[in-house]
């Protein structure tokens, strides 16, 4: 019953005109950047963070969340019609979706993707509502040692799921942790690694780093490639799937939703991992696996449901524990902090309107997305013909104006440019920037909790292995590391990512 | 010893350098403290050491394992990087001595590095011009106003791309400046000067 009351409270917040408007702006922008290849939700959310300063916290979060799950819808459109993933999580949708489009069945593919996403969105919304309160309850009992171990676990999980070398991913996390240290030490008031630059005394702005690493670096990398986007504009004629289509895909949608929801909750998980998992699963359980890659509708239904479910359930660790599972959630935490709200389990009790309003808005947003995506598909397809040479200077203008307006100081823009170059070099050296961002966000928190835990235990480092919850996280981290280091799994993991980079 | 995977080689060097720098700098400048009462140097020292160790592993891997995927291609070498940083350092130092603000040093250095890149490292054009475009935007906002800064950003970044047509970029600039004005200056009331400072 309490759940019911909470949801009513949430919907009360979500359907106020102002929040409906921001949810609409969010999902519209999300669809837009999802459709456009080369612009991701991370860069977009980073770009909009400074603007959210002027909004109220609920509207700000509703809009930013809309961008993330909206991008999952938009990404599938590009994948099906143009065979280019508009979003990294719709890579696998290209495989069968584009084949369906070539057979003249683009309409059903798009419709199934939207229906699957909508269903997954509804289930995931409900799941957040059910699972979040008990989790937050547990999290409220966490002491510094539990928090520290949880963060270790989160960071390890993030590295395991990053592509490429495991050692490099861990090194990037540590690199991020170190960068997070720059600024005033809260315990002693000492300025660390500021080199006499007054702007650094508050630390490097997270938004600035994210925009550099994901925004400018991405633009540079895109420009390095030749602009080779070709649009295969198949006419989308009949939109509605046949009975046969529905019969074949409903089970896939269910499986995709279940798998995506689970993988989304894992730290380091989210939409990308979910869609890959779902595709593999569908191929395994299918009675006619030979059709996959040749236009099997299950290959669209499963992953598309999974990526939307994963995108939404990845909010669970962020909302209940205050721990970001992926780069987008790290930005969400940044958005909360900009609003002066300390992320963590207390948010649910102290700001129920924010918490439940956000959850309810996800359902409303999903409904809007179905309407936005199906009847208006023609408009999104047109967008694909806009050349990148108009897009990227526009993106740069928004990023630069956003960063500059943070404190009206050109120094922030300088830092963004520096991190752009660094991000470019890292990508060239096959060092993933996403783990670094997580480390950067968690750095100060981790140090603080480590210090407190050590103070309480009188310098005994075994405290992390004595308390049961903390021990659990440590053991889980160790297991994860061992599993990944095992040769067979290592090979599997590499294969999965090779398939992705095709 | 042959470098089998230059990506690991350079990534390893980068991590070792960063780790050692943070660890040594923390040790030399801040208080270490004890495990019970950690000083400001404790955590960075630990992490710096860890990063250097991980870097060493990656570095060794660079000699042991063949890389997979694409070959490493960077449009500049490490000497170029040092030269570019040196140009910025020298001009930032020089500007105040001739009575100008360091902002002008930054702009001058950006200009020199851009010209050098276009002349000698055309493949690094995208990297340098996109970064410089952002820099110039930030540092020219005060002297040139929103209009001047946006113009600089749009034209420099467009020049970093594959195709550059004056007319197209001009139209794009007009659209973007109008958008910036209405959304950011009018709509969100951000306090940006519109026109160059000398005019008003």
- The order of strands across the largest sheet of chain A is 1-2
Helix content of chain A: over 70%
Which protein chains are joined by the largest interface, and how many residues does each one contribute? A-B, 66 and 71 residues
Mean pLDDT of chain A: 82
Radius of gyration of chain B: 23 Å
3D architecture notes:
The complex is a heterodimer of chains A (502) and B (200). Chain A is mainly alpha-helical. Helix content of chain A is 75%, strand content 1%. Chain A has helices at 2-14, 17-35, 41-52, 57-82, 91-102, 106-140, 144-161, 166-181, 206-224, 243-265, 271-285, 298-313, 315-321, 327-338, 346-350, 352-373, 377-383, 388-407, 410-428, 433-456, 463-466, 468-485, 487-501; strands at 183-184, 191-192. In chain A, strands 1-2 form a two-stranded antiparallel ribbon. Chain A is globular. Chain B is mostly helical. In chain B, α3 (78-97) packs antiparallel against α4 (102-120). The interface between A and B is large, with 66 and 71 residues.
For the structure shown, list the relevant keywords.
heterodimer; A: 502 residues; mainly alpha; 23 helices; 2 strands; 75% helix; 1% strand; B: 200 residues; extended
Short description:
The complex is a heterodimer of chains A (about 500) and B (about 200). Chain A is mainly α.
Strand and helix map with partners:
The complex is a heterodimer of chains A (502) and B (200).
Chain A: H1 2-14, H2 17-35, H3 41-52, H4 57-82, H5 91-102, H6 106-140, H7 144-161, H8 166-181, E1 183-184, E2 191-192, H9 206-224, H10 243-265, H11 271-285, H12 298-313, H13 315-321, H14 327-338, H15 346-350, H16 352-373, H17 377-383, H18 388-407, H19 410-428, H20 433-456, H21 463-466, H22 468-485, H23 487-501
Antiparallel strand pairs in A: 1-2
Helix pairs in contact in A: 1-16, 2-4, 2-16, 3-4, 3-9, 3-14, 3-18, 4-5, 4-6, 4-12, 4-14, 4-16, 5-6, 5-12, 6-10, 6-12, 6-13, 6-16, 7-8, 7-20, 7-22, 8-20, 9-18, 9-19, 9-20, 10-11, 10-12, 11-12, 18-19
Chain B: H1 6-29, H2 42-64, H3 78-97, H4 102-120, H5 125-159, H6 166-187
Helix pairs in contact in B: 1-2, 3-4, 4-5, 5-6
């Amino acid at each position: 019953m309490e759940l019911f009351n909470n949801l009513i409270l949430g919907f009360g917040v979500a359907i106020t005109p102002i929040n409906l408007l921001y949810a609409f702006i969010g999902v519209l922008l999300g669809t837009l950047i999802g459709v456009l290849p080369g612009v991701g939700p991370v860069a977009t959310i980073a770009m909009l963070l400074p603007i959210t300063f002027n909004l109220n916290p609920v509207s700000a979060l509703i809009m930013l969340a809309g961008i993330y799950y909206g991008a999952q819808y938009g990404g599938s459109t590009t994948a099906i019609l143009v065979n280019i993933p508009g979003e990294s999580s719709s890579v696998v949708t290209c495989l069968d979706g584009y084949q369906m489009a070539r057979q003249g069945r683009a309409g059903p593919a798009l419709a199934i993707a939207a229906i699957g996403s909508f269903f997954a969105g509804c289930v995931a919304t409900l799941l957040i509502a059910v699972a979040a309160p008990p989790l937050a309850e547990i999290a409220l009992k966490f002491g510094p040692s539990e928090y520290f171990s949880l963060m270790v676990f989160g960071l390890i999980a993030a590295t395991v799921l990053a592509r490429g070398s495991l050692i490099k991913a861990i090194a990037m996390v540590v690199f991020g942790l170190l960068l997070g240290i720059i600024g005033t030490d809260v315990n002693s008031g000492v300025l660390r690694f500021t080199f006499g630059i007054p702007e650094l005394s508050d630390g490097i702005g997270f938004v600035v780093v994210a925009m550099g690493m994901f925004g400018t670096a991405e633009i540079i990398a895109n420009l390095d490639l030749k602009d080779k986007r070709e649009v295969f504009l198949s006419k989308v004629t009949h939109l509605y799937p046949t009975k046969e289509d529905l019969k074949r895909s409903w089970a896939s949608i269910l499986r995709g939703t279940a798998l995506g929801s689970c993988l989304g909750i894992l730290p380091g998980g989210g939409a990308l991992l979910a869609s890959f998992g779902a595709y593999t699963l569908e191929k395994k359980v299918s009675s006619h696996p030979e059709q996959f890659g040749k236009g099997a509708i299950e290959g669209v239904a499963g992953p598309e449901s999974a990526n939307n479910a994963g995108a939404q359930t990845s909010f669970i660790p962020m909302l209940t524990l205050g721990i970001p599972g992926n780069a987008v959630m790290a930005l969400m935490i940044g958005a909360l902090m900009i609003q002066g709200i300390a992320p963590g389990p207390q948010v649910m009790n102290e700001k129920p309107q924010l918490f439940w309003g956000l959850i309810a808005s996800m359902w409303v947003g999903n409904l809007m997305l179905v309407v936005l995506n199906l009847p208006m598909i023609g408009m999104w397809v047109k967008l694909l013909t806009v050349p990148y040479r108009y897009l990227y200077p526009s993106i740069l203008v928004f990023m630069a104006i956003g960063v500059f307006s943070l404190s009206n100081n050109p120094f922030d823009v300088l830092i963004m440019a520096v991190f752009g170059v660094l991000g470019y070099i890292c990508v060239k050296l096959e060092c993933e920037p996403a783990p670094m961002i997580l480390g950067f966000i968690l750095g100060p928190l981790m140090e603080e909790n480590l210090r407190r835990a050590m103070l309480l235990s009188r310098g005994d480092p075994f405290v992390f292995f004595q308390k049961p919850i903390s021990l659990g996280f440590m053991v889980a981290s160790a297991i994860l590391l061992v599993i990944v280091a095992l040769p067979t799994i290592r090979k599997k993991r590499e294969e999965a990512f090779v398939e992705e980079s095709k | 010893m042959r470098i089998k995977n230059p990506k690991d080689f350079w990534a390893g060097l980068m991590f070792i350098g960063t780790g050692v720098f943070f660890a040594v700098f923390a040790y030399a400048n801040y208080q270490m403290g004890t495990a019970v009462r950690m000083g400001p140097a404790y955590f960075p020292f630990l992490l710096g050491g860890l990063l250097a160790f991980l870097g060493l592993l990656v570095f060794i891997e660079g000699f042991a394992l063949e890389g997979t995927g694409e070959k490493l291609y960077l449009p500049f070498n490490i000497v170029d990087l040092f030269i570019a940083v040196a140009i910025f350092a020298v001009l930032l130092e020089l500007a105040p001595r001739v009575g100008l603000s360091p902002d002008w040093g930054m702009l001058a250095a950006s200009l020199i590095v851009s010209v050098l890149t276009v002349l000698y490292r055309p493949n690094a054009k995208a990297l340098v011009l996109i970064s410089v475009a952002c820099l110039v935007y930030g540092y020219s906002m005060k002297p040139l106003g929103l209009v001047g800064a946006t113009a600089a950003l749009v034209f420099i970044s467009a020049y970093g791309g594959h195709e550059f047509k004056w007319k197209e970029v001009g139209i794009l600039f007009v659209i973007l400046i109008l958008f910036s004005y209405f959304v950011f200056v009018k709509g969100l009331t951000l306090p940006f000067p519109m026109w160059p400072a000398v005019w008003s």
